Inverse folding.
């Protein structure tokens, strides 16, 4: 038994290509399914505005001080 891909026969190369293709399709399908924005009715992207709170200073002691 030879463990080199260089000297493998045609069927082995075909098996490797098929497994790589199936794995690529699975990764792409998982990436598409994992999208958090599932609302396809909006064509434009919308930004959410976050208002800033009070300024906070973090000291070296790990406690925070509100000014």
């Amino acid at each position: 038994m030879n463990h080199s891909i260089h000297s493998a026969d045609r069927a082995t190369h075909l098996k490797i290509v098929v497994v790589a293709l199936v794995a690529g399709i699975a990764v792409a399908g998982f990436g598409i399914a994992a999208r958090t924005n599932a609302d396809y009715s909006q064509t434009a992207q919308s930004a959410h505005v976050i208002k800033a709170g009070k300024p906070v200073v973090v000291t070296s002691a790990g406690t925070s001080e509100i000014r």
